TrEMBL record:
Top EC class, one word: oxidoreductase
Domain Molybdopterin oxidoreductase: 53-349
Name of the protein in question: formylmethanofuran dehydrogenase subunit B
InterPro entries assigned to the protein according to its UniProt record, in alphabetical order: Formylmethanofuran_DH_bsu, Mopterin_OxRdtase, Prok_molybdopt-oxidoreductase
GO biological process: methanogenesis, from carbon dioxide; respiratory electron transport chain
Catalysis: reaction(s): N-formylmethanofuran + 2 oxidized [2Fe-2S]-[ferredoxin] + H2O = methanofuran + 2 reduced [2Fe-2S]-[ferredoxin] + CO2 + H(+)
General function of this protein: Catalyzes the reversible oxidation of CO(2) and methanofuran (MFR) to N-formylmethanofuran (CHO-MFR). This enzyme is oxygen-labile.
Originating organism: Methanoculleus bourgensis (strain ATCC 43281 / DSM 3045 / OCM 15 / MS2) (Methanogenium bourgense)
Similarity section: Belongs to the FwdB family.
GO cellular component, one term: membrane
The UniProt record lists the keyword Ribosomal protein: no
EC number: 1.2.7.12
Length: 437
C-alpha cells in the first residue's frame, strides 16, 4: 500500500516549487515516486533513499581513513572546537531551514564566530547594491499574473531553475497574462548562447564583463539620447529597440544571476541594473529580482538581517555584529589565515571555493554537517550526516522573492538520525556548559 503526499515543497533551488506530489509507503518509511518536480528536484528526494547513504557521523583518522563515531562524540568535538577557537568561521546555511539558521546564529554569538552564507560567492554583491540604493521588487505571483516583459540577465533558468519559466515567468497564464508566453516578450542578456537564450525573442550577446556599460546604455536609450554605434558588442539600433520593448510593456521584470553579480563590476553592475528598473518606472511598472540559487539562501539573509542587521559576512568576534564584505567574507578570511576553525552546514565550499581556501579548510579543525558525501566532507575532520530538510523534516524557507514557505516532511529519516536543528541545539547546550553561561 502507498499514499500520496500533495502540495510538497521542493527543497532544491530558490524557486521553491510548492506543487510536488510524492508517493511514499504506507508506513512513511520509503519514498517511492516524485511527480511535478524537475530532474534535479526529483533527484534530491530520491537521493534520500540511496542504499549507501551515511547514517552516522565519522571522524578522519591520522592515516586519512574514516572512523564511525556517535552523535554524542560529534557534538563534543564540534562544541570543543568552536569554544576553543579564537575566531571560528561558521559557513553555509543556505540548504537548511530558518529554525536551524537561528540556532546556529546563537552558537555563533557565544563563540564569537564569523557567520557567512553562500551569498558570499553569489548574490552578496546584490545585497550590497540593495544597501546602496534599495530595490523595487515584487513577488513571483505578480510576475505570473502581470509581467509581459521579461529580462533574464546573466542567468540561465533553463538549467539552474528549470521550472521558473513554466511556473512563473514565461509560460503560465496569469490573471492579466491570459495568453501565456505569446503575450510576453523575453529578452536574454548573456555572452553565451544558452538554452534560455535560444527561446528568447531577443538575445543580446553581450561581450563578457561589459554589463555595466550595456545597463548604462539602456538608461541613455530610454531617454532617446545619443549612443555610440556599438556598446558592449551590441549595435545601438538593437539597444534602442530593446529599450522601446521594455518601455512599452505593462509590467517589466528583470531577473539577474551570477553572470552579472560575479563579473567585472560586481555590486556596481547591480546598482546600475536597479537604476535601469527605477528609470523604467517613469514609463511603466517595473521590478527586479535576483535569481537566488540554494533553496533557503534568502532565508539565511532574512534570519541574520533580523538577528544581526546584516545578511551575510557577519563578524561576531568582538562581541557585537560587524559587517565589512572584503574583510569579513569567508574567502578573504581563509586566504589571510584569520580563522582558526571552520564549521560548514548546508553548503559545499569544497566544490565552490578557490583551491587556496579549500586548502585552508583542510588544514584547520573542521566539521561538516551534511547529508551527502561532498568535496567539503572530504576535506573536513568530522562529517555529521543529518536528515534532509524538506524531505525528512519540515521548517521555514524563503523563496527567491522573499516569500516564506513552510517545507514539509514526507518520509521518515533513517532511524536515530538527527536533524540539523537537533544537532545544533545539542552543540549549543554543550557550548554554554563549556563557556559557563
Ligand atoms: S525548479 Fe527548483 S524548486 Fe522547482 S522542482 Fe526544480 S529544483 Fe525544485
Amino acid at each position: 500500500m502507498t499514499k500520496t503526499v500533495t502540495d510538497v515543497i521542493c527543497p532544491f533551488c530558490g524557486t521553491l516549487c510548492d506543487d510536488l506530489e510524492v508517493v511514499v509507503s504506507d508506513d512513511g518509511k520509503e519514498l517511492l515516486e516524485v511527480y511535478n518536480a524537475c530532474a534535479i528536484g526529483a533527484e534530491k528526494f530520491l537521493h534520500s533513499q540511496a542504499k549507501d547513504r551515511l547514517t552516522r557521523p565519522r571522524m578522519r583518522q591520522e592515516d586519512g581513513s574514516w572512523k564511525e563515531i556517535s552523535y554524542e562524540e560529534a557534538i563534543e568535538y564540534t562544541a570543543q572546537m568552536l569554544a576553543d577557537a579564537t575566531k571560528p568561521l561558521m559557513y553555509g546555511w543556505s540548504s537548511t531551514n530558518c529554525e536551524a539558521q537561528s540556532v546556529g546564529s546563537e552558537i555563533g554569538e557565544y563563540v564569537g564566530a564569523v557567520m557567512d552564507n553562500t551569498a558570499t560567492v553569489c548574490h552578496g554583491t546584490s545585497l550590497i547594491a540593495v544597501q546602496d540604493i534599495g530595490i523595487p521588487s515584487c513577488t513571483l505571483g505578480e510576475v505570473k499574473n502581470r509581467a509581459d516583459r521579461i529580462v533574464f540577465w546573466g542567468c540561465n533558468p533553463a538549467h539552474a531553475h528549470p521550472r521558473h519559466m513554466s511556473r512563473y515567468s514565461i509560460f503560465p497564464r496569469g490573471f492579466f497574462t491570459g495568453k501565456g508566453h505569446t503575450g510576453r516578450k523575453m529578452v536574454v542578456v548573456d555572452p553565451r548562447v544558452t538554452d534560455t537564450a535560444r527561446i528568447a525573442d531577443v538575445h543580446l550577446q553581450i561581450e563578457q564583463g561589459r554589463d555595466y556599460e550595456l545597463l548604462d546604455a539602456l538608461r541613455v536609450a530610454f531617454k532617446g539620447e545619443q549612443l555610440p554605434d556599438v556598446v558592449a558588442g551590441i549595435a545601438k539600433e538593437k539597444i534602442y529597440e530593446v529599450a522601446e520593448t521594455l518601455k512599452s510593456g505593462r509590467f517589466t521584470i528583470i531577473f539577474f544571476g551570477m553572470g552579472v553579480t560575479q563579473s567585472l563590476g560586481k555590486n556596481h553592475n547591480i546598482d546600475a541594473a536597479i537604476a535601469v528598473t527605477r528609470d523604467l518606472n517613469e514609463y511603466t511598472k517595473a521590478a527586479i529580482m535576483p535569481m537566488r540559487g540554494h533553496y533557503n539562501v534568502t532565508g539565511s539573509g532574512q534570519v541574520w538581517g533580523w538577528q544581526f542587521g546584516f545578511p551575510f559576512a557577519v563578524d561576531l568576534s568582538r562581541g557585537f555584529a560587524r559587517y565589512n564584505p572584503g574583510e569579513t567574507t569567508s574567502n578573504d578570511l581563509l586566504r589571510r589565515g584569520e580563522v582558526d576553525a571552520i564549521f560548514v552546514l548546508g553548503s559545499d565550499p569544497g566544490a565552490h571555493f578557490p583551491f587556496s581556501s579549500v586548502k585552508k579548510i583542510y588544514d584547520l579543525p573542521s566539521v561538516a554537517v551534511e547529508p551527502h558525501e561532498t568535496p567539503t566532507t572530504e576535506v573536513c575532520k568530522v562529517h555529521v550526516p543529518v536528515a534532509f530538510v524538506g524531505v525528512e523534516v519540515g521548517g521555514c524557507a524563503y523563496r527567491m522573492d522573499n516569500v516564506p514557505i513552510e517545507t514539509r516532511k514526507v518520509v521518515e529519516p533513517p532511524e536515530g538520525m538527527m536533524t540539523d536543528e537537533e544537532f545544533l541545539r545539542h552543540v549549543l547546550a554543550r557550548v554554554k556548559e563549556i563557556k559557563g553561561v
